[in-house]
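Exercise 7.
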Amino acid sequence: MGIAGGVRTMLALTKKTDYALIALAHLSKRTGGVISARELGQLSHVPLPILTNILKTLAQAGLVVSERGAAGGYTLARSASSITLHELINTVEGPFQFVQCVPDESEPHKAPCELESCCAIRQPAHRVHDRMKEFLESVTLAELVDDPKVAVGVPLGVRRQSVKELAS
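Solution. The predicted structure, written as tokens, is:
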């Protein structure tokens, strides 16, 4: 946990991820054609230099498609229902790790934590990591931007409940 301006934060994502989510939300709502980075910046109020870097990253990861030229712009590469929060976070932030000792697929030869042999929370922390990762993999962009009556992260084949039903 960190303290920023007297407010405690825990597991906060960076502004870059916030901006990427905002951009993807606008793109998911767009019907018919591409939208320029400039127009997307005006709609989202994300500073254009930051937005163009984010869009480049999202394009490299295959989340958006970039069309060059005077009539060019951006569109989602896939449906909003196939883009997960986990995929977005990995693209923008790097591999999700609840704790440092969770193995990172991108660094298989990383040295283990020096406290690993005597750590009292290693196994519980790994379980929490796995559950959080599973949750992030279950939340789609569509669920974040669609009607709030749609339940978040409900596995296929399970009756979807509205958020109001889940809260009561």
